[in-house]
Design a protein that fits this description.
The complex is a heterodimer of chains A (about 1150) and B (about 190).
Chain A lengths: L9 H4 L4 E6 L7 H11 L9 E5 L29 H8 L3 E7 L7 H18 L6 E8 L10 H14 L6 E5 L4 H29 L10 H17 L3 H15 L9 H21 L3 H15 L9 H24 L10 H22 L41 H16 L3 H18 L3 H17 L3 H18 L2 H18 L2 H11 L8 H15 L12 H16 L5 E5 L7 E7 L3 E3 L4 E9 L5 E10 L3 H4 L3 E3 L17 E2 L4 E8 L9 E12 L5 E7 L7 H10 L22 E5 L5 E7 L3 E2 L3 E10 L5 E10 L5 H5 L1 E4 L13 E10 L4 E10 L3 E17 L2 E18 L2 E8 L8 E3 L4 E9 L5 E10 L4 E2 L10 E3 L4 E9 L7 E4 L2 E9 L9 E6 L3 E4 L3 E6 L3 E3 L4 E9 L5 E7 L5 E4 L3 E6 L4 E10 L3 E4 L3 E5 L7 H5 L5 E5 L5 H8 L1
Parallel strand pairs in A: 1-2, 1-3, 3-4, 4-5, 6-15, 8-16, 18-25, 27-36, 38-46
Antiparallel strand pairs in A: 7-9, 9-13, 10-11, 10-12, 10-14, 14-15, 14-16, 17-19, 19-23, 20-22, 20-24, 21-23, 24-25, 26-28, 28-32, 29-31, 29-34, 30-32, 33-36, 34-35, 37-39, 39-43, 40-42, 40-45, 41-43, 44-46
Helix pairs in contact in A: 6-7, 7-8, 8-9, 9-10, 9-11, 10-11, 11-12, 12-14, 14-15, 15-16, 16-17, 17-18, 18-19
Chain B lengths: L1 H7 L5 H14 L3 H18 L3 E7 L5 E6 L5 H21 L11 E7 L3 E7 L5 E7 L7 H20 L12 H10 L5
The chains are: A alpha+beta (about 1150), B alpha+beta (about 190).
InterPro entries (chain A): TPC11 (IPR021773), TRAPPC11_C (IPR025876)
GO cellular component, one term (chain A): Golgi apparatus
Subcellular location (chain A): Golgi apparatus, cis-Golgi network
Chain lengths: ~1150, ~190
């Protein structure tokens, strides 16, 4: 964009730097000079002193210095600040002029060169006559200079050169042209910088000195001007703190000026300039709050200074520019590291700038509405002789004029007219949009999504005004959904109205329809008559007619739009539109629901579609179709169609099927029979389509994805659920819209089986037995059930170990083993007539105990009729049962001596007893078929062991015991633990038939400790004695060692017996030999009597005590009383 | 002054006092502060109780429950102002940490200044927002007065919520609430 009069001049916006002019450099042809110049100006980094350099020819003409005024007495200033002043001091009048001259100290023609240099200095001095500009000379030398003071020739010649050129020693520099050029240059420019600062200091002093001549009545403008100049020089001097102070003073002086219509613009312009400088410096000093405060103050002071009412747009343009430039400054400061916040960021200033730009546009359209006959005035009052203004902010036709009234009324009118005509050509919308988009970018950065949306709406509206409808729609479409999801209907309505207008003007049919549909719907806050108008237009569009113009369209555009619409009308084809209404709030609401979340395959699937129109007039549609997910075949069953005649599209006839009356809920129900393949599948409503219009006009499909609903419906449903009204009574036919909930999917499930599956069995199952379960299947169907199949066994999905330890078979006569599966699938049963019953026995063997779930799954096929349609359904019935498996009995084993004393170890070759107890744990009687002892080689039976429990029946809790006499063959070393063998029990349930297989349960016998003993004693005595009858007792003593044993024996006396034999004896038994001792005991008392105790001690084995040996001997005997006659006894018994 | 006050502001009967206590539990106000604010309100009601240009109640989900502005012809602009102010409200709520959410002050203060209006915000514990827009030129208005306006609004809103026939989430159509709002607004000229 080309600069406009409102843009701030570039010399104001730049950072002022000391201006140093370089002469005597031939940068085009002299390589050395070029290198020097490059070192000055190329790649200046921030750490170098702020100087702007310029190469000027030696005879350059500088701006003429006017003769200094000695008195201000009769001087009346013509304006505040000359337009050229800033530029003059930035770019034209140098603070320091540097003359470069090639001269070595030992130059052959020194004298001549010296005078030539002096001449050159003289020339530039003359051209800067009257200015305080300093002059410096730089000698470019080929040789590296000696350290100061060593080269006597140099110091002498330097002094003479200074003298010749009238220079102070400080202004003469030497630049050796050697390797370290940049280093020398940096030192040089630092020296230049000092000179420049001195220059600006004197300039400040000079301007300050004027003050005493001024008076407050006539020289008010000069106060401002001088203060501004001082501030500007301070800035050039890089004294920003003082500069800010002077600018602040200047600012308050500007507002002290008498304001009237003629100088308002000048004052505002200057105030704007100074304000800009202050804000800029505040940001530079990192005091952004000061900047903001200054700006606020500035705006508050200037807001009301409108100036000429006929040029009011100038004020708003200026205001807009103030905000914009402050926004720019703020943004620039942020780029340099300032952090802004959500509520204080440049966006607000751009937004405000845009606001004023909009105001400006409005004022411009209002003030510049000239009739066509008014032409641009001639002569052009805006022309000036120089092409530019002398002072900032003045009128071209009365420059320098400072009195209250304009000098020429005629000129004034012409000038204003010219300005107004010019304002007409300003691309206002462009300016506004640029500002708005700046603001949008800022608000996006500072997390203000709603502010961003609002500005985008404004941009869209501005594009609409600029007649760029495509862009307008793009922006409005983008933000519309934000307002829709936030449910700000008033704002949405306003945006939609704008969008509708745009789409009308572009004759964009689809957009026009979709915006209209939302505007007549329930989300719109338009009044009823506006809705009615839009609906009528919508109907027209549907009938392929031209809609009426939207209000607020200008004549020309409306006319153009009419033509466009007519073109559209004649265009054949492309008259079918599909509008996805899911994300809008259209004027027809739709909810579709399956009546149940699941349907049996032999029941027809029922589907209701609820429609409701929210528009002011009834609306007729021509087709309603529901699309379902997996079966295209179903879709044709879910269609209502009735092509409507175009003329009666608006006629209200509530009886008719295809007419939606506003506020009334209509229900369309569909019914279809599901395919048998779909059993177990989900049927979903993928879309509901409603066709408006007709095939011969335009037709529009409103398409709801899924089961209907739109952008607003979910929230409405939530509110309805909370509402107290929802619990009210509702008449039968009347459907409360809010209470309808969408059910977009249903399951097709198999038919309910009419078959009974019964299980009979006797739980619990016993471990390892072939447990019988009888399944009886009875058909209760009315027709033949075909292809009945039974799947029986362990229910899948249980513990994996159970599968390994459960075996199922149909054959109950054999024991089943690992090869049998845990589940028997698809046992064919064949067809069942109605009422027929089938039984099937299943045998289960559970190897481990615990609970198991068994599944009995009966599946069959059946032909049936649904809604007059034959279908073959597959039905199935599942029955499960949990069966506990328990151990049938416990087996307990113990070793006892022949005296039934408990043994913890047995002795080699000495007989002992093995006792087994079988304790029934089964709730059912057990039939023990037989038992068997399988002895290990380390055990031997005393005789042929025979089962003592054969054919015994055990009731619950009963115990069967057996006893086997065993002995151990010698073991190698003294003691060791040996295996005993196994105990096998064969059994079955008593209740089961004879041919049921016998279960053999194996009990492993425990290991036992075997010990060798050196001596063995056993007694031989009668089974009982009789009082006073002698009875012989023989003790056998065996030596089981390979050594001769000394044995001491004694018999202790007893009260119950008299005895004869050796009472105490010591004898010697040879290895392996046996000694026999005979005693005659003569019992004295009846009853159980302790035998006289036999004590044996082995002299060689003191460890083997009598105690141990006594175990082998009987300790007592039953003594019968003295016998009577046998007859007496029998009589007594009788 | 105080005696006059008593005639202006109806004091609570014992019955309504207990009712109020119930209500305060809901709104998170302390009883003492309500008492004092009632008195404060009374004092200022003579001078500048009519001062807001727009008052809005925004639901937790950020849609408007109630919105009223005085220059009716510029209604849309106020709607936009209230809507955009929600940016700042949301930011302020989220700035308070989750742990501190219980102790959060309901009054959010000045949300943002525009050239012409000042926008103030207030958020209840149930995240219902109140927004009051005041003309920038109305410099007599101090922070305390804005606070008490919000409290008054909040009390009236709790009354609306306590109405068994009001559906939470519906737009507010209560005469009592309306009149409270009207009393706070600049009379349309």
């Amino acid at each position: 964009m080309s600069p406009t009069q409102w843009d701030l001049p570039p010399e104001l916006c730049c950072r002022p730097m000391a201006f140093v002019a370089l002469t005597g450099l031939d940068v085009t042809y002299n390589a050395i000079h070029r290198a020097i110049w490059d070192a000055f100006c190329a790649n200046r980094r921030a750490d170098r002193v702020p100087i702007s350099f310029k190469v000027l020819p030696g005879d350059h003409e500088y701006p003429k210095c006017r003769t200094k005024r000695t008195s201000y007495e009769w001087y009346i200033p013509k304006g505040i600040l000359k337009t050229g002043w800033m530029n003059k001091h930035l770019n034209l009048v140098p603070a320091l002029l540097v003359l470069f001259y090639e001269l070595d100290w030992d130059d052959a023609v020194w004298k001549e060169k010296q005078s030539e240099c002096a001449t050159k200095v003289e020339i530039v001095r003359t051209s800067l006559q009257g200015r305080n500009t300093k002059v410096a000379v730089v000698l470019i030398q080929k040789k590296t200079p000696l350290p100061p003071g060593e080269d006597l020739v140099a110091s002498e010649r330097a002094a003479s050169l200074c003298n010749a050129c009238d220079l102070s020693g400080k202004s003469l520099f030497v630049l050796p042209h050697t390797d370290h050029l940049v280093g020398y240059i940096i030192r040089l420019e630092n020296a230049f910088y000092e000179h420049a600062q001195t220059y600006y200091y004197t300039e400040i002093r000079r301007v300050k000195s004027h003050k005493e001549f001024l008076n407050k009545t006539t020289h008010q403008l000069l106060f401002v001007r001088h203060q501004f100049k001082i501030a500007f020089f301070s800035e050039l001097k890089q004294d920003t703190q003082n500069s800010l102070k002077y600018y602040r003073t200047a600012y308050s002086l500007v507002h002290e000026l008498r304001t009237h219509e003629t100088n308002m613009l000048e004052i505002k312009t200057m105030a704007g300039f100074i304000n800009y400088k202050i804000c800029r410096l505040c940001f530079q000093h990192n005091t952004p709050l000061d900047a903001i405060a200054q700006f606020r103050k500035h705006i508050d002071l200037c807001k009301k200074k409108i100036g000429s009412a006929e040029l009011a747009f100038e004020h708003t343009a200026w205001m807009s520019k103030q905000f914009q430039s402050f926004g720019d400054l703020f943004d620039e400061a942020i780029k340099l590291g300032l952090t802004a916040i959500q509520t204080q960021n440049p966006g607000f200033y751009y937004q405000q700038a845009a606001y004023y730009a909009q105001e400006r546009k409005q004022q411009a359209t209002h003030l510049c509405a000239h009739e066509a006959s008014v032409s641009y005035p001639t002569p052009d009052h805006l022309e000036t002789p120089s092409g530019a203004l002398d002072f900032y902010g003045q009128r071209a036709w009365r420059q320098g004029h400072q009195s209250i009234d304009p000098p020429h009324m005629e000129k004034e009118k012409g000038g204003i007219l010219a300005l107004q005509m010019k304002e007409k050509d300003v691309p206002h919308s462009e300016l506004i949009i640029a500002l708005l988009s700046n603001a949008v970018a800022q608000f996006k950065k500072y997390k203000c999504p709603r502010m961003k949306s609002h500005l985008m709406v404004q941009m869209g509206e501005e594009y609409n005004h600029a007649k760029d409808y495509t862009k307008a729609l793009k922006l409005l479409d983008y933000v519309m959904c934000d307002y829709r999801t936030e449910r700000w209907w008033s704002l949405l309505t306003s945006i939609l109205s704008t969008a509708l207008r745009c789409s009308y003007l572009m004759a964009h049919v689809k957009d026009y329809i979709s915006y209209s549909m939302e505007l007549v719907g329930r989300a719109s806050t338009l009044r009823e008559e506006q809705k009615s108008r839009i609906e009528k237009n919508l109907i027209k569009v549907l009938m392929n007619e031209v809609p009426e113009a939207e209000p607020d369209c200008d004549q020309a555009s409306a006319k153009a739009a009419q033509a466009l619409w007519s073109d559209r009308m004649s265009l054949a084809g492309s008259n079918e539109f599909t509008i996805e209404v899911q994300d809008y709030v259209p004027f027809v609401q739709c909810k579709a629901k399956f009546l149940s979340p699941s349907f049996h395959v032999d029941d027809p699937v029922q589907l209701h579609v609820y429609l409701r129109a929210d528009c002011p007039h009834p609306v007729r549609f021509s087709k309603l179709c529901v699309s379902l997910s997996n079966q295209v075949q179903y879709n044709q069953l879910c269609v209502v169609e009735e092509p409507c005649k175009s003329q009666d599209i608006l006629e209200a006839s509530s009886q008719e099927n295809m007419c939606l009356v506003p506020g009334k809920t209509r229900i369309y129900s569909f019914k279809f029979v599901a395919k048998t393949e779909d059993v177990g599948k989900k049927i979903e409503i993928t879309a509901v389509d409603l066709m408006l219009g007709s095939d011969n006009g335009r037709c529009v499909f409103l398409n709801w994805r899924g089961g209907g609903g739109d952008a607003a419906s979910s929230h409405e449903a939530l509110l309805a659920a909370r509402s107290f009204k929802s619990r009210g009574r509702v008449p039968e036919q009347h459907v409360e819209w809010d209470t309808v909930s969408i059910q977009a999917s249903t399951m097709i499930i198999s038919r309910i089986p009419k078959i009974s599956v019964q299980l009979s069995h006797e739980p619990p199952a016993l471990n390892n037995e072939m447990y019988r379960i009888t399944v009886s299947i009875q058909s209760n169907e009315e027709t033949v059930t075909k292809d009945v199949k039974l799947t029986a066994g362990l229910k899948p999905g249980q513990d994996a170990n159970l599968t390994q330890s459960t075996h199922v078979t149909l054959n109950g006569l054999e024991m089943c083993d690992e090869s049998h599966p845990a589940l028997l699938p698809d046992i064919a049963i064949g067809d069942l007539q109605p009422g027929e019953k089938v039984e099937k026995c299943l045998y289960v063997r559970c190897v481990t105990t615990g609970a198991r779930i068994f599944l009995f799954h009966v599946a069959y096929a059946l032909s049936t009729k649904v809604e007059g349609k034959d279908i073959t359904c597959r039905c199935h019935k599942d029955e499960t049962v949990t069966i506990e498996t328990v151990v049938p009995f416990e087996v307990a084993v113990k070793f006892v001596s022949t005296k039934f004393e408990h043994l913890d170890r047995v002795y080699v070759d000495i007989p002992f007893l093995l006792m087994t107890d079988i304790l029934s744990a089964s709730p059912w009687p057990l039939h023990l078929v037989t038992s068997q002892l399988q002895l290990a080689p380390t055990m031997a039976a005393m005789d042929q062991p025979q089962s003592q429990v054969e054919q015994v029946v055990l009731q619950t809790g009963e115990c069967a015991s057996e006893c086997f006499s065993l002995q151990c063959p010698p073991v190698l070393n003294g003691t060791s633990s040996v295996a005993s063998g196994q105990y096998l029990i064969s059994w079955k349930r008593k209740s089961w038939c004879a041919d049921a297989p016998v279960v053999t349960t194996v009990a492993t016998l425990p290991h036992v400790m075997v010990e060798t003993i050196p001596l063995y004693v056993h007694a031989e005595l009668p089974s009982f004695g009789r009082v006073r009858e002698s009875m012989p007792v023989r003790y056998h003593i065996q030596n089981r060692t390979g050594l001769v044993q000394d044995v001491e024996m004694s018999v202790e006396p007893s009260d119950a017996f008299m005895f004869s034999g050796l009472k105490q004896v010591r004898l010697r038994i040879l290895p392996g030999a046996e000694q026999e001792m005979l005693y005659n005991f003569y019992p004295l008392m009846a009853g159980y009597q302790n035998l006289p105790q036999l004590n044996i001690s082995l002299l060689r084995f003191p460890a083997v005590s009598g105690q141990l040996l006594r175990r082998f001997l009987p300790s007592r005997i039953f003594v019968k009383p003295q016998g009577r006659q046998a007859e007496d006894a029998s009589i007594a018994a009788a | 002054m105080l005696t006059r006050l008593k005639t202006q502001v109806p004091l609570f009967s014992m019955n309504s006092y207990t009712k109020l206590r119930e209500k305060l539990k809901l709104s998170g106000l302390s009883l003492a502060s309500t008492h004092s604010h009632v008195i404060r309100l009374g004092r200022h009601s003579r001078h500048n109780s009519k001062m807001a240009v727009c008052i809005a109640v925004i639901a937790k989900e950020n849609y408007p429950l109630f919105i009223r502005s005085v220059p009716v012809q510029n209604e849309l602009k106020f709607h936009y102002t209230v809507h955009t102010s929600l940016d700042v409200v949301e930011e302020k709520i989220s700035a308070v940490g989750k742990a501190m959410a219980d102790q959060r002050e309901l009054y959010l203060g000045l949300l943002y200044p525009t050239e012409d209006y000042k926008v103030y915000g207030y958020v209840t514990n149930s995240k219902v927002k109140f927004v009051i827009v005041v003309d920038s030129s109305n410099t007599s208005l101090r922070d305390n007065e804005i606070r008490s306006m919000f409290r008054k609004l909040h009390n009236s809103f709790t009354d609306v919520m306590c109405n068994p026939f009001y559906n939470p989430g519906d737009t507010i159509q209560s005469k009592a609430f309306d009149s409270i709002v009207s009393a706070m607004m600049v009379q349309a000229s």
